[in-house]
Amino acid sequence: MVLFACNLNRVRSPMAAALAQRLGLGADSCGLSATDAVDPFLAAVMLEVGVDLSEHQPKTFADVNGETFDLIIALTPEARERLAGSATPVEYWPTADPTLADGSREQRLDAYREVRRALQRRLSERFGAPST
Prior knowledge:
The protein has helices at residues 12-22, 40-47, 61-64, 77-82, 105-127, and strands at 2-6, 27-31, 71-74, 90-92. The protein is an alpha/beta fold. The chain has a single domain, classed as Response regulator (Rossmann fold, 3-Layer(aba) Sandwich). It has a four-stranded parallel sheet with strand order 2-1-3-4. The two termini are 18 Å apart.
């Protein structure tokens, strides 16, 4: 089981966990803190690849405390810092924050798509092709 961690568990870590699940991996996600709202751009770009995250409920580290993970992947420097000294192996995958993108709706969606593509590439490199 892999845990993906970021800052708010609103975009990057739920995206990574959902993509990992599509590869057949057990995966979950959390953040340093959590927000209540689903990011509409996240929901839109994930629907483009057949994943519905419209009901995603953001979680914090406290929410996954007690669960066992084989690997934790930190997607932000802050999450990596929080995980320093963890007994579970931690990898750091620096991942851009698409919520910082400016421009038109389409330009902002493209920033989310680029993060999705980058995570897909990284997941495939690390864990291989999807299981069938």
